[in-house]
Design goal:
This protein has 456 residues and is an alpha/beta fold. It has 15 helices and 23 strands. A hairpin with a 2-residue loop joins strand 16 and strand 17. Helix 5 packs across helix 8 and helix 14 packs across helix 15. The protein is globular and about 60 Å long. It starts with a strand and ends in a 5-residue tail after the last helix. 48% of the residues are buried.
Amino acid sequence: MHLHILGICGTFMGGIAAIARQSGHTVTGCDANVYPPMSTQLASLGIALTEGYDAAQLDTVAATADVFVVGNAISRGNPLLEAVLDANRRYISGPQWLAENVLLDKWVLAVTGTHGKTTTSAMLAWILDRAGLQPGFLIGGVAPDLKVSARLSDSAFFVIEGDEYDTAFCDKRSKFVHYRPRTAILNNLEYDHADIFPDLAAIETQFHHLVRTIPRTGRLIVNGGEESLKRVLARGCWSEVERFGFAAIADTGADWTIAVDGTIKLGGAPQGVLKPFALLGRHNQLNALSAIAAARHAGVPVAQSLAALATFRGIARRLEVRGSANGVTVYDDFAHHPTAIAATIAALRRDVGNQRIIAIVEPRSNTMKLGRMNARLPASLEQADRVYCYAANLGWDATAVLAPLGDRVRVDSDLETLVDAIVRDAQPGDHLLVMSNGGFGGIHGKLLARLGAPMR
């Protein structure tokens, strides 16, 4: 079968492409932004890429396509999509294609939540892999240990990052509703994706729809400290539930707990210690705990999970060190929501002590651009010693929003000017923490080049 994928360079759709190619299908695709590393990854699989969405593809590279797989970034008005509809060609969303062609006979382990999905999915896939289960997986990032973001295998198990974002132009349900997991982690839930959800209640409804698909013999691994998730389960739950939380919080009713030193308990009984562990932050301890609980449902003993996590090296763009020069370290982190920003800075602060943290923020997500998180943004940056904000293409006044941070803040809409200011400010021992869900104009390389060292 020949699949032509619209929006192929997105992480999820690129994963679909890789899995389809592994399945023996002919795969081609197009995107408005064809660039490395996804373009080179797909090229290495023999997948032909076309720049743009010209309708002429229907008569050229996609002339023999049996089905068009449409990514959720593609909207009505897209020239190629309009041509596909006019020609009455067969089309399908990425999640539906995956559900019907890959997940149907699998034990699906889905990781959901506003934060931590990619990291937790990678941990879970790594645990199962080290346990000899050789799972398939589709994750929204690349873990050095797994080497790729998506893999098809003959294993009965498949780990997937369960995104709550909508499915496609023709299907406004959350992607995860298609996956029908047997094991589902509900890591956390708060308001995000302001471009498609009017409020938190609307997202809770999508999580309720997911819960309705879990079989009676399935299991939900739920963060017991989240009021939003309590409301989701109160609307109906027909499966086994295990709750997890921090040991210091007594009112979560958690079955699984983890202490600051990494000690894990299940039903009050010690299970082992998460140590050593390469990832910083209490939020990552909680991510690991949920992965351990999910792996246990798939038959992996806790001790085996702990041994696997002791070798887990993290995931790209999650407090990833990109290089250092003259005593200054540059990090890359995907944090693009106040909760994630605060957790990332707190994790780094715990690691570096009193050394200066210079937070460099690009409010790039749709929710941030709409200004829906402005009231929470200053507090999320409170633990940083200095804050630089790139304010290009914002519809709100970043200087006014960040004014509560006083003279610690500099806002600029010109990237080169911002880089110059950061380099002048940086001192030996500083930690430059870049936070964005995009490429940020290659700022990591610019900073390291100006500071005098190549980027890793």
